[in-house]
Specification:
With 68 residues, the chain is an alpha+beta fold. It has a single domain, classed as Alpha-Beta Plaits. The protein has helices at residues 12-16, 56-60; strands spanning 2-3, 22-23, 29-31, 34-36, 45-46, 66-67. The protein starts with a strand and ends with a strand.
């Protein structure tokens, strides 16, 4: 799953993600206790290692900016 540059940073997907795999632009994240730099400073992003591809984020995206 990936968030495209059509993202409007509304955070609906961040709030919806049951796996805490989606973060706001510029936000660092953590895997196995290790802090990681943001994958994007411009748009919300999905951390592939945390995503189980349930697609609940796709359903709430207002602008269809999430693709497989």
């Amino acid at each position: 799953m990936k968030i495209t540059d059509e993202c409007i940073n509304c955070s609906a997907c961040v709030d919806e993600c049951e796996n805490d795999a989606i973060y706001n632009a510029g936000e660092s994240y953590e895997i196995n206790g290790e802090s990681k730099e943001p994958l994007s400073d411009d748009y919300s992003f999905i951390v592939p290692e945390l995503c189980n591809e349930c697609k609940s984020c796709v359903e709430v995206c207002a602008v269809d900016a999430i693709i497989e």
